[in-house]
Design brief:
The chain is about 40% helix and about 15% strand. By secondary structure, the chain is of the alpha+beta class. The longest helix has 21 residues, at about 240-260.
Length: about 325
């Protein structure tokens, strides 16, 4: 019997040596956060990245963090433990002990969804419209399985939109107020500065006409960009909406085309000799030249909502299970 127990013990030891992955069974959020090392910002629990790719992404995050002063985190999982993507992203950031201000990208392979969670002043930098724009930019990479590029473009966009915010005069006062350190949570900050946030909500934001800058496509250094900033809304702002322009064009066409058909000339105005000269035919050449690209304009909606959610001008926000305020948004891929 004693020998049997000894043999069984040896078998058990070899079993765990041969299959160490069994020791990393994740059943609760703490199983993920227990792996957090404050120096590491890439947590690839879904094994989507090679070691060399994780190293490159970590370097990209370090550079982006130095430029933006944000805590930037990437998290991938193949088990969401029954949590919503918002809950999983917020809780990992909070209980992982990351900074007061930051942004996290979650890739949930079980639900096939990516989610962006923001904390602190990053809720202002990445308001609802900006988050949707970033998701527009990166979701195709997730769908195609290009996870390294997904993380790289996420870092590029974080730098781009952070620098856009801090270089906009309209944000100057509100950012300086946050940096005084008087506020424990973004919700308190938002409620005590409602006038400033309402002011932001009354403006339109013009994104740089080059769009989201990516190094591989444009060669432009996205760390040193010039930004359009804000402008006052006027009556003519509505004409920036392509749908409005289409409707107006359709109405004009419906009115003018029948009128033109009813009043067209009765005969031909040109004959076989119209374009003929003594030396033959003479025809003019007309060219249309593309001279510029239009800017994309997004309206930042304001709201009088006094609940735990702020308006989209300041970044809508909610409370996580820890009681901390977060912004964010996600999308299936």
């Amino acid at each position: 019997m004693k020998r049997f127990i000894q043999v069984l013990s040896v078998i058990v030891v070899f079993w765990f040596m041969a299959f160490p992955v069994l020791a990393d069974e994740y059943t609760q959020i703490q199983d993920y956060t227990d792996k957090v090392n404050s120096a590491d910002k890439v947590y690839d629990f879904a094994n989507l990245l090679t070691d060399s790719e994780k190293t490159k992404i970590q370097k990209e995050i370090d550079r982006a963090a130095e430029n933006t002063k944000l805590d930037i985190v990437v998290l991938t999982v193949d088990k969401n433990l029954g949590y919503s993507q918002r809950r999983l992203a917020d809780d990992f950031y909070d209980y992982g002990g990351f900074g007061d201000t930051g942004i996290l990208l979650l890739v949930d392979m079980q639900a096939r969804e990516i989610y962006i969670s923001t904390a602190g002043i990053a809720i202002l930098y990445f308001n609802d419209t900006v988050i949707e724009t970033i998701l527009d930019d990166i979701t195709d990479n997730a769908s195609a399985g290009h996870y390294k590029r997904l993380c790289e473009e996420f870092c590029e966009d974080v730098v781009y939109y952070t620098n856009m915010a801090v270089n906009t005069d309209l944000y100057k006062n509100i950012i300086e107020e946050w940096n005084t350190g008087k506020y424990q949570d973004y919700h308190d900050f938002y409620e005590q500065n409602r006038k400033e946030f309402d002011k932001i909500g009354k403006y339109n934001f013009d994104y740089n006409e080059k769009g989201i800058v990516t190094k591989d496509k444009t060669g432009v250094d996205f760390y040193h960009m010039k930004y359009k900033g804000y402008h006052n809304k006027t009556f003519f702002t509505i004409f920036r909406n392509p749908l409005v322009d289409f409707i107006i064009g359709a109405i004009i066409s419906l009115i003018t085309i029948p009128f033109m058909l009813n009043h067209k000339g009765n005969g031909m105005t040109a004959s076989g000799r119209t374009y003929q000269t003594e030396n033959g035919f003479q025809l003019g050449l007309t060219q249309d030249k593309f001279i510029r690209r239009s800017t994309v304009s997004h309206t930042i909606q304001s709201s009088s909502n006094t609940s735990s959610k702020g308006n989209s001008g300041g970044g809508s926000h909610h409370s996580s299970s820890s009681g901390r305020s977060h912004g964010g948004g996600g999308r299936k891929f």
